[in-house]
């Protein structure tokens, strides 16, 4: 599903080498934590996956597409195949929970009938059926992140990318979010999650890729924790 072959990324403006000869292969249906110290290259890895950045050299394949050769006009279509969750939720503040989730479907020509059935189903899945009419500012951090997750899931993407999704919420709620992601993963969705929280990582039995100074320094396919 995801293949990085000898990928290097140098940011031109500063000459910073963020990734060097980076090779990784992630299969369909895997749950992968990506950990490592600040500045290691985790966000760069995510930006390359989302095709926000292009590598300086190497090849990247996601869902059978070569991201290096992907034409600029095709990038928005590629992004629609991804479900993305960020640390800062990125909800639309003027829209209620229902509309924040429905919006992700409305921009992709899904019929009104399908939206009416799909949005309540997804809100139920993340435990927010009772909050459909609430505005984001009236929700807790954990609830806002569940709305963001619902929005990422509603298009049924084969891949979810979560960049520090628990960075702004309490430890108990962080566990719940990863638990929810794990349930989604059991249904076949591939999950790539960047995190700083090694306590959280050690609670779950998922593959752990540790990046440092732009390269993978360990890849624990069974279970893992890392020391910073
Ligand atoms: N747009 C950019 N222009 C120049 N240098 C950048 C840019 N983005 C990141 N870098 C540099 O690339 C390196 C890797 O950064 P990256 O953001 O990928 O690390 P990270 O592991 O996500 O860190 P953190 O955990 O602090 O978010 C760092 O040295 C950073 O300063």
From TrEMBL:
It is a peripheral membrane protein. Its main location: membrane. Pfam families: ABC_tran. Keywords: ATP-binding, Cell cycle, Cell division, Cell membrane, Membrane, Nucleotide-binding. One of its GO terms (molecular function) is ATP binding. SUPFAM superfamilies: P-loop containing nucleoside triphosphate hydrolases. One of its GO terms (cellular component) is plasma membrane. InterPro entries: AAA+_ATPase, ABC_transporter-like_ATP-bd, ABC_transporter-like_CS, ABC_transpr_LolD-like, Cell_div_FtsE, P-loop_NTPase. It is found in: Cell membrane. Belongs to the ABC transporter superfamily. NCBIfam families: FtsE (TIGR02673). Part of the ABC transporter FtsEX involved in cellular division. Homodimer. Forms a membrane-associated complex with FtsX. This is Cell division ATP-binding protein FtsE. It comes from Anaerotruncus massiliensis (ex Liu et al. 2021).
């Amino acid at each position: 599903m995801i293949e990085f072959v000898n990928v290097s990324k140098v940011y031109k403006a500063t000459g910073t080498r963020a990734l060097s000869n980076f090779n990784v292969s992630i299969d369909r249906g895997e749950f992968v934590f990506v950990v490592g110290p600040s500045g290691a290259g985790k966000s760069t890895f995510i930006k390359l996956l989302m095709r926000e950045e292009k590598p300086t050299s190497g090849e990247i394949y996601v869902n059978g597409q070569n991201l290096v050769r992907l034409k600029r006009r095709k990038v928005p279509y590629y992004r629609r195949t991804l479900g993305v969750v960020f640390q800062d939720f990125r909800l639309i503040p003027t829209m209620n929970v229902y509309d924040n989730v429905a919006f992700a479907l409305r921009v992709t020509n899904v019929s009104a009938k399908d939206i009416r059935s799909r949005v309540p189903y997804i809100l139920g899945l993340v435990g927010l059926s009772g909050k459909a009419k609430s505005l984001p500012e009236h929700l807790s951090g954990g609830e806002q992140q569940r709305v963001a997750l619902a929005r990422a899931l509603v298009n049924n993407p084969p891949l979810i990318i979560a960049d520090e999704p628990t960075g702004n919420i309490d430890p108990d709620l962080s566990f719940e979010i990863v638990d929810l992601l794990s349930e989604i993963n059991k249904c076949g969705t591939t999950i790539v999650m960047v995190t700083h929280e090694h306590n959280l990582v050690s609670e779950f039995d998922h593959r752990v890729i540790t990046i440092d100074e732009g390269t993978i320094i360990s890849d624990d396919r069974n279970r893992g924790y890392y020391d910073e």
